[in-house]
């Protein structure tokens, strides 16, 4: 669990430098921390989880999103504007959320799922605060697409059924029979 429970996170939570932490122990439901010049203290594991997500959300602010790529599930290209400046692919759908970055892969290996800064950047781009909200928003857009009466927007040629093959060019996608 060093990905979440580590000295760097404890130093952020306590407002000190990581090297000032003399003792750091992960217990069953709390973290025991002793900082140089201070009394030892216990930190809730929940605070570490919030810090873990917060760091990724902050990192998302420094990512650039390309428009969704064609295909399903929705795929986005995200570039980190930090040191590595690498493009990453992010997939968001009801059944599948993924990213090809190392952080996501490590989270997935440890917990079977994950949420990296690239995924948070896509959520922010979509105007959503959670995956559930993004999925619901996507389903609404898809339903709008399904609700369109495509017959009304296609060119309509009203002709007797016998005349359709001989008089109407095949390029028309809809023919109404009188």
Description:
- By secondary structure, the chain is an alpha+beta fold.
- It has seven helices and nine strands.
- The protein has helices spanning 7-14, 45-60, 102-111, 117-126, 131-147, 150-153, 164-167, and strands spanning 21-26, 30-35, 41-44, 63-65, 74-80, 87-92, 97-99, 156-159, 174-177.
- Strands 4-5-6-7 form a four-stranded antiparallel β-sheet, covered by helices on one side. A three-stranded antiparallel β-sheet has the order 1-2-3.
- A hairpin with a 6-residue loop joins strand 5 and strand 6.
- Helix 2 (45-60) crosses helix 4.
- The radius of gyration is 26 Å and the shape is elongated.
- Mean pLDDT is 79; it is low at 153-178.
Q: Which helices and strands appear, and what pairs or packs with what?
A:
Layout: H1 7-14, E1 21-26, E2 30-35, E3 41-44, H2 45-60, E4 63-65, E5 74-80, E6 87-92, E7 97-99, H3 102-111, H4 117-126, H5 131-147, H6 150-153, E8 156-159, H7 164-167, E9 174-177
Helix pairs in contact: 1-2, 2-4
Q: Count of DSSP E strands?
A: 9
Largest sheet composition: 4 strands, antiparallel
Q: Helix- and strand-based class? A: alpha+beta
Placed side by side, the strands forming the largest sheet appear as 4-5-6-7
Percent of residues in β-strands: 15-25%
Q: Span from first to last CA?
A: 70 Å
Q: H/E series, N to C? A: HEEEHEEEEHHHHEHE
Q: Helix count, per DSSP?
A: 7
Low-confidence stretches: 153-178
Overall outline:
elongated
Query: What is the residue-averaged pLDDT?
Result: 79
Query: Which radius of gyration do the C-alpha atoms yield?
Result: 26 Å
Helix content: 25-40%
């Amino acid at each position: 669990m060093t990905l979440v429970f580590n000295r760097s996170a404890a130093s952020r939570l306590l407002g000190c430098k990581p090297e000032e932490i003399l003792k750091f122990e992960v217990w069953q439901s709390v973290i025991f921390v002793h900082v140089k010049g201070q009394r030892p203290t216990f930190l809730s594991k929940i605070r570490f989880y919030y810090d873990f997500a917060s760091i990724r959300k902050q990192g998302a602010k420094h990512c650039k999103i390309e428009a969704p790529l064609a295909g399903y599930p929705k795929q986005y290209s995200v570039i980190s504007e930090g040191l590595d400046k690498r493009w990453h692919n992010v997939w968001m759908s009801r059944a599948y959320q993924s990213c090809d970055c190392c952080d996501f892969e490590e989270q997935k290996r440890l917990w079977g799922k994950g949420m990296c800064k690239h995924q948070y950047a896509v959520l922010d781009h979509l105007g959503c605060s959670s995956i559930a909200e993004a999925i619901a928003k996507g389903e609404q857009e898809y339903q709008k697409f399904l609700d369109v009466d495509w017959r009304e927007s296609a060119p309509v040629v009203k002709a007797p059924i016998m005349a359709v093959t001989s008089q109407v060019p095949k390029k028309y996608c809809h023919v109404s029979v009188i």
